[in-house]
Model the fold of this input.
Amino acid sequence: MPLREGEVAPDGDVWFRLITSESHISRGKIKHGAFKGKFLGRANSGSPYTTEISGRLRSQAGSIDEIRGHAEAYCKAKASSGQKFAGLMFCQKAAAAKVFDQFSMNVYFTPIASGPDADPAHSDIGIAGPPIVDGSPEYDRLVIELSDLLRGLHSPDQIDLLPAAIADGPRSTETPEVEPEPGAVAPDSLLTKILRFLGIR
Amino acid sequence: MGCDVLLKDLVERDLFQNARYKFRVSGPLNTIPQIELASGHLAVVGLGSYGDTTSGLIKALTGSAMRRIGEDALALEDDDKIDILNLRPLQSLHLPFGHGSATEDLARRVSNWTGMLTVDSKHELLRGYERYSVSNWDGDDAEPITKETLDYAHLVMMGLPDNFGPPEASPGLDGSIALEWVPENHNKLHKLFLDIGPGSAGARIGNSVAVNSIG
Done:
């Protein structure tokens, strides 16, 4: 089933975002100067989250060549002083879906149909919880999370290393855990299958 | 006593938060201490033991004799005028100074020492940051890093302790300069971020996590 607007991305998907300053990537990690200014956006009312980080969804963005072409076109259209496509920051959706302190973070599919920023692969990392004010303890906490979460790839040499989305992965966080009906047989866990294969169970 | 104490002390004393460094001297650690004057305090910070060089320098600056009160601590002869912190391995000694003729006299004497000292190589981390002085330098509405912020960053860099090695620097999208230490050995320090600016906002130590067992 195709992903619909506003849905949580499948666990196997990958969120990524353009980087236009080489100074923000170091040893595969993102320096926290990249998380300042307008990096964090205020989500629209009605969103399930209060703070958002705009990016793209790997499963919707096409091939690596298409991703590279989109990034180069973006830089050409937006940059005022010869900026270039410096790289990408990215994370696995499954790693981004987490709860910390009073915040809940996840990756949402939020395509933009029209306008100068139209992007059918647009996606937000959405953070639900109280609004995050720059310089607050909550902001510091989020920066730590993002610093741990996001990885960086230099352009042009490393863009090919952007992980592919695993198609039709589960959407574990959008479906609440449900207790099995009494008497129902729970599916075998991997451990159970291994033990059975070894003749232990 | 670990470096967590030092960072806490620096924050409490506003040395990194709101202070504007008026004078400073920097030199190779273990030989000549770094000296900073801020918020009415003179701070002498060095990694080595306080020896004759430090004692002589402080005497030259303050006109007061020093006496050793412990392995790594010195005190002015007049104990009422001094606040001593005995920190290992990064030692810090704060001398309260007011503003006025005494401070001006101190500045003059500090200036006389600068010709003998070595410029700190930490400035290299900020090489080329002038290119971020224009708005939208990232193509996505980044704020410019002003000359004031960059100048202040140079001052802060020269006064930073070396315990965690050199920081990495990056231009903040809000016009700040973001320093961070992310050592490979997480047993000592997970991450330490220090943001400078934007503008004249001074510096802010944030995201200091589990700083202990240093030294």
In short: The longest strand of chain A covers residues 51-57. Confidence is low (pLDDT under 50) at residues 172-195, 197-201 of chain A. The interface with chain B takes residues 20-21, 23-24, 26, 29, 31-39, 75, 78-81, 83, 134-135, 140, 143-144, 147 of chain A (CB under 8 Å).
